[in-house]
Amino acid sequence: MSYHPKYEMLQAYVHGELTSVDGFALATHIESCPQCQQHVAKIEEQAGLELETMQVEESFDMSVIFDRIVALEPCDEPIRIARKPRIVEVNGRQFSLPLTLSRFSDDIGEWKSYGGKVFSAPINLMEGARVNLLYITAGVNIPQHTHKGFESTLVLHGSFSDEEGEYYAGDYLLKDSSIKHSPFTKEGEDCLCLTFLTEPMLFTQGVARIFNRFGKGLYP
Ligand SMILES: [Zn+2]
């Protein structure tokens, strides 16, 4: 694993300043990344120290806060905590999902096949978020494309490459609209990714029509 979120993004994660989609992407990366786990632990420690030394108003009364908490309506919805990774099946292959995602395994939609080479399934994580599982079989080239907004990708299994590098399980990538790339998988190595899109991707090459035929491109 050699592609990590930027340090500033980890800081924003700890301070709760990310959107829920970005927060989810980071949580999933951190689950499998000891290096970022260490960074997060440090940032949390710092944040804790800052809290301790923070000036507190005179009127701060713990018993008032406690009363407010116990006065809250209890929530009937069960808390969904996955204790075991769940399995997802695509194109006859089985993969175990990260724990962050296992909680949502019932919210994974139908797999769509693009020529039997690329498969995508939407995950209904939260309103307005375009989150997809993307499975690319071995030895496939995806036409060059760019993005109107941001695309972040988290590799879950296997690997893929583009003009800028090779990405393996756990790697986290953030691409913006200035980047054109043509991802591909090597012979003998397939890839399962989690993609987070803010805008649909735009294909920049002719071959892409094969993909665009399916309506709105690779992502619903
Ligand atoms: Zn990391």
Describe this structure in words.
Pfam families: Cupin_7, zf-HC2. This is ChrR-like cupin domain-containing protein. Residues 126-197 form the ChrR-like cupin domain. It is a single chain. By secondary structure, the protein is an alpha+beta fold. The chain folds into two domains: 7-71, no CATH class; 87-212, Jelly Rolls (Sandwich), CATH 2.60.120. It is 26% helix and 26% strand. It has six helices and eleven strands. Strands 3, 4, 5, 7, 8, 9 and 10 form a seven-stranded antiparallel beta sheet that branches. A two-stranded antiparallel sheet has the order 1-2. The chain is globular and about 65 Å long. It starts with 6 loop residues before the first helix and ends in an 8-residue tail after the last helix. The structure holds zinc ion. Residues 4, 29, 33, 35-36 line the site of zinc ion.
Strand content: 25-35%
CA gyration radius, whole angstroms: 20 Å
The hetero molecules present are:
zinc ion
Structurally, how many domains make up the residues?
Answer: 2
Distance between the termini: 29 Å
Question: What is the averaged pLDDT score?
Answer: 83
**CATH architecture descriptor of the largest domain:** Sandwich
Helicity, in percent?
Answer: 25-40%
Secondary-structure class = alpha+beta
Properties at a glance:
220 residues; alpha+beta; Jelly Rolls; 2 domains; 7-stranded antiparallel sheet; two-stranded antiparallel ribbon; 6 helices; 26% helix; 26% strand; disordered C terminus; binds zinc ion; RmlC_Cupin_sf
